[in-house]
Amino acid sequence: MLSQLPNCITRPSWLQLISWIADPLKFQDYYRQKYGDIFTMRLSGLGAFVIISDPQAIQEIFNQDPKQFDVGSGNTLAIPLLGQNSLLLMDGDRHRRERKLLMPAFHGERLQTYAKQICKITEHIASEWQVGHHFVARTAMQKISLEVILQVVFGLSGGKRYQQLQPLLAAWTNMTDSPSRSSMLFLRFLQQDWGAWTPWGQMKQRQRHIHDLLQAEIEERRTNGDAGQADVLSLIMAARDENGQAMTDEELRDELLTILFAGHETTATILAWAFYQIHQQTDVREKLLHELDSLGENPNPMEIAHLSYLTAVCQETLRLYPVLPSIFARITKSPMKIAGYRFDAETVLLPSIYLVHSREDLYPEPHQFRPERFLERQYSPSEYFPFGGGNRRCLGYALAQLEIKLVLATVVSKYQLALANDKPVKLERRGFTLAPKGGIQLVMTGKRLSEVQA
Ligand code: HEM
Description:
By secondary structure, the protein is of the alpha+beta class. Helices cover 50% and strands 11% of the residues. The protein has a single domain, classed as CATH 1.10.630.10. The protein contains 18 helices and twelve strands. The strands form four sheets. Strands 1-2-8-5-3 form a five-stranded mixed β-sheet, with helices on both faces. It has a three-stranded antiparallel β-sheet with strand order 4-12-9. It has a two-stranded antiparallel sheet with strand order 6-7. Bound molecules: protoporphyrin IX containing FE.
């Protein structure tokens, strides 16, 4: 006999889908109040999802043998964007092999090289800001994070291919910058390629152009044998698996797009929220500046990354503003008991980042921005997981945190910024992610002399 799913929401599934696309946080808040830590939503055309916000249950999921779950097969919505060879879509041995090939490029000593590039890129882009000039924080941060991907990952910082790719990638990722434009990712009937005058057709056209440019870059490097550069593409082109096999061109191309897609909007959004909070709460800004100034002039980027208050600001921003409302779905491969509930094979479990990060028992006054909470106590991997967990933990978690800290530190220590208005900022869907509506308006009020120079 099949087990019943717990606490099923009774509203029609099409209505649940619309609510989930429009405002997944309000949706989850409402049903947590009604049902508690575990409930089941049913999304029209996508199936049933058991939403979980009990850290104990999530720990049980993270601690299971990864072989007990499929994850890639739950991410099929990403196929039209990323292609069949994306890490996001893989499971089992293929996923394990691909992660092993990609992982070294994002960790260890590599990060020190990237750190310097991130600071340089930030300084260059911030130097274009004029005193008295208004700008949208999220757009400015996306410019930085796109440049980081282009230089650090693709190894491109100039030349014809860079000039073509830069605006194309920006336009491609901006195609889902509102809830209505995002719906084409969830509603398959909108995915019709009827040429460049339909949104989907335009998206596919740009994607084909990006594919061609990436393919040309890969081929050129193979021909010139210059895979010895310090960027991620060179490293993953040179990587070999246990059988001495390298990644194919299709794999390389799809992984580059995956890294761009998973890495640049997410980081830009978190940075925009961090600037919002830092300039809303003067005490946060002052504490941060005091800590940054304590390093003296021209500190080493890795020293900056180890600062404790800066780290807490970064952690608290990631807690309060989930870029993804949940981690990837874990699909049971055989019957399994979690949190006392029995689930059949093929049950889709969805640990909710948002619901756990807003638990009153873990984070008193959860909707307040208070970095100190991360200095006062440690949270376990199932109490705090902005980057997910287990064998699917975000591939770029170390790079993302480094980038967030270095961009914040570089800008805050050199420029005086202020919020352009005091209107409250709401969250809005942006593709699969959530971002600040309107992007947060900032104004540059002056350049800053550090306490050391003053
Ligand atoms: C603030 C920035 C970021 C956040 C909040 C974030 C968050 C996440 C989350 C929640 C997951 C799912 C993990 C799970 O289901 O357990 C994920 C996966 C992933 N992320 Fe990130 N991410 C960020 C930045 C990045 C960056 C910079 C990169 C690449 C350089 C990246 C690449 C990936 C990839 C490739 C996966 C799939 C991993 C797999 O399936 O094995 N992310 N990320």
